[in-house]
Amino acid sequence: MESKEIIRCGWTNHHPLMIEYHDSEWGVPVHDERKLFEFLVLDAFQAGLSWLTILKKRENFREAFAKFDPEVVARYDEAKIQSLLQDQGIIRNNHKVRAAVTNARAFLEVQKEFDSFDRYIWQFTGHKTIVNQWKTLAELPASTKESDVMSKDLKARGFKFVGTTICYAFMQAAGMVNDHLIDCFRHHQIEYTG
Of 12, 32, 100, 181, whose CB count within 10 A is highest? Predict the structure, then answer.
């Protein structure tokens, strides 16, 4: 009896970390506040880099940014920022490190205004997952009208490193859109919640 090959989105490039992320996280709707903050931080750090680079350093990021607790990160002072800029386990980019702290503070403000970041961020997709029907990786957009609106609103609230392309990557990671190709085994597996 022949075993059927599992079909995945081609961007995994058969790398174990990418496969694990693809199979268990990417596109799964996220409503947990800390997880949403984690993706906000990691997607900002990814700008100009590969997602694999971020995944390889993810545990170091988790340690450096207090397990992605925005209340703790919001209190990071200049001394803490300088120590992070010496931390070889993360991406030592001055602007991105400072953006993570700025974004933690803005994140807390959004939580106060909307009772949760989740309630705020999911409004950009009408509180449901946009399920796309892509056949090839070439069809995947870098941004959409929803990510444009999200980016503009986040920037107006003081967030940094939240351009429309970063916002769209966040939307993919947090399951606000399902961009698994239609022949990928995960496309129909993910349960969508609003």
Answer: 100
